[in-house]
Amino acid sequence: MHPLANAVRELYRAGQTDYALEPIVLTDARDHPIGRVRDGDAVIFCCRRGEREIQLTEAFTEPGFTHFVRPDFKNLTFVILTLYHEKFKDLAVAFAPMQIPDTLGAIVSRAGLRQLRVAESEKFAHVTFFLNGGNSQAFPGEDDARIPSPHGIPFDQIPALSLPQVTARVLQGIAQKYDLLVTNFANGDVIGHTANRDAKIKCAEIVDAHLGRVVDAALSADYCVLVTADHGNLEVMTNADGSPHVSHTANLVPFLLIDPRDAARGDVRDGKLADVAPTILRALGLAQPAAMSGATLVPGYDWGGRRRVLLVILDGWGIGKDDDANPIHLAQTPMWDALMQKYSHAQLQAAGDAVGLQPDKAGNSEAGHINLGAGRVVWQDDVRLDLAMKDGSFASNEIFCRVIDDVKHRNTSLHLLALLTEKSSHGSIEYPLALLKMAKASGLTQVFVHVIFDGRSTEPGSAPALLEKFARQMQAIGVGQIVSGVGRGIALDRDGNYNKTKRAFDALVFGTGRRSRTTDALSH
Q1: DSSP string, 400-413
Q2: What is the pLDDT of residues 463-482, one digit of tens each?
Q3: Can you tell me the distance from the alpha carbon of 95 to that of 44, in angstroms, rounded to the nearest whole number?
Q4: Strand pairing report for 77-82 and 42-45
Q5: What is the Cα–Cα distance from 228 to 253, expressed in whole angstroms?
Q6: How far, in whole angstroms, is CA 74 from its chain's centroid?
Q7: E strand or H helix at 345
Q8: Residue 486, helix vs strand vs coil
Q9: 139-195, pLDDT tens digit by residue?
Q10: Where are the domains of the chain?
């Protein structure tokens, strides 16, 4: 039984959860931390997404970093799996990004039109970086409004999050007559990840009220309003066994066309998220580029000339069953009900290979927004990496091979930052396992693994079992030692809370955290 698993169980008894577990560090018999990151070592960050990995990557790599004191690493190699921000373009990137040209934002910008993106910080990267096809820089004519998400209180205690402020900025943008206005209502996904039944129902009611405010204002200003979602989540409250459902779904998502000039209720066809951008371009009177393989969801629709468009993305608002397991159905949502009755609507695919994920895999916000902005199905990093593992190219990846050889030559240590999950859009435990096999084959012996407990795509309370399974898999490979662990909400903060990032960094570098003494078998 791994000592870190026992430490996690103790923290459970103290009221902590996987997502927010405080740092735990493995120590030797003299209480000295094992496997600290030191200058001359190499670190491979085994996560593949973007906004959640930025702050910790900055802490290790950014020149002039000022958020907290850190060692002066002069010879530390830091490898990222994918390029999740342009600021890291000079780092070693194992899987270079696919370039996505001619996105919705790029086409609107080249036409000389003005666009505004509004979201709270929990989803700000999604309406900017991801919607722009992985481009971190705003296009000419694009303004971005980042509303801070609440701090210091569990989200299920404030199901409104910062939606009132988001709504206020959207209303301001409508008054300013932006040609394209895109906003994300984060509540459905953020609260959908909690186990609080009442908060989920309240969340749906709050979203409904604020949706009503922006739709009414947009229609009064002669905007055409499109409402959709990036994936499902909130629409499922419980699993088949009655336990709380806290993860994304593979359900279809709604698409509504709300046009103040549409007396005839134009026909809207079913489709996929990649069809939204071509629809918006039609409304804006812009030609669809050849790179966009999606098609308008309202073929033959008479937009009445160039229009202004508001796109509202209800994050995590999938189509569920009309039963007591669906918070959206249970909630009082008069605006949503009226819109569904009065205006044309359809269903869009937002999961699996329809958004470039593995077949039948639940959708996620990154894949959803990339497809929404790209106007084509974009293969996601999990597919690219899984294909690389299957065809053998992962094990022959030039970056990985070079780093392992360098560490062996310098007689230093390799560190793997590993998300402890088997199915998250942020990563998979299969990546560090594959790297451990590569290290074993090369004869590298000094390999330390630092786990990040998930708590989102994993079941609540599952961390000890997953940790022990991972330890057994590592033992079968014959190399590597798990030496620290910390909750995803701390290590992968995306809200600018560098105090959380510091706690994770200090555990990795200084061995600061809750002590968990190794057994003799592990220390030798």
Answers
A1: HHHHHHHHHHHT--
A2: 999 999 999 999 999 999 99
A3: 12
A4: parallel
A5: 7
A6: 31
A7: strand 344-349
A8: strand
A9: 999 999 999 999 889 999 999 999 999 999 999 999 999 999 999 999 999 999 999
A10: 3-96+383-523, 104-122+135-145+155-363
- The first and second tokens of residue 340, run together, are 């569904």
Query: What are the start-end ranges of the H helices in 331-397?
Result: 334-342, 365-374, 381-391
Q: What is the rounded CA–CA span in Å between residue 326 and residue 324?
A: 5
Strand order in the sheet with 92-95: 92-95, 77-82, 42-45, 414-420, 447-453, 481-487, 24-27, 514-517
pLDDT at 484 over 80: yes
- Tell me which residue of 401, 409, 378, 380 sits closest to 94, measured CA to CA: 401
pLDDT digits (tens, 9 = 90+) for 417-469: 999 988 776 778 999 999 999 999 999 999 999 999 998 888 889 999 999 99
Express as a percent the part of the chain with pLDDT over 70: 97
Label residue 407 by pLDDT band (50, 70, 90): very high
Cα 46 to Cα 93: distance, rounded to the nearest angstrom:
11
Phi, psi at 13, each rounded to 5°: -65, -25
* Banded pLDDT at 519 (limits 50, 70, 90): low
Q: pLDDT band for 520, please (50, 70, 90 cuts).
A: very low
Same fold, 3-96+383-523 and 104-122+135-145+155-363: no
| Superfamily for domain range 104-122+135-145+155-363 | Alkaline Phosphatase, subunit A (3.40.720.10)
Give backbone dihedrals phi and psi of 16, rounded to 5 degrees, phi first.
-85, 155
Task: Convert 225-236 into a string of H (helix), E (strand) and C (coil).
Answer: EEEECCCECCCC
User: What span, in angstroms and rounded, lies between the C-alpha atoms of 328 and 391?
Assistant: 43
The yes or no reply on domain 3-96+383-523 and CATH 3.40.1450 is yes
- Whether the Cβ atoms of residue 395 and residue 437 lie closer than 8 Å to each other: yes
By the 8 A CB rule, do 229 and 316 touch? yes
Q: What is the pLDDT of residue 86?
A: 64
- Compute the CA torsion angle 80, 84, 86, 88 (nearest 10 deg): -20
Phi-psi category of 177—alpha, beta or left, where left has phi over 0 and alpha has psi -120 to 50?
left
pLDDT given at position 455: 86
Please provide the average confidence, as pLDDT, over all residues in the chain: 93
What pLDDT, on the 0 to 100 scale, is given for residue 19?
93
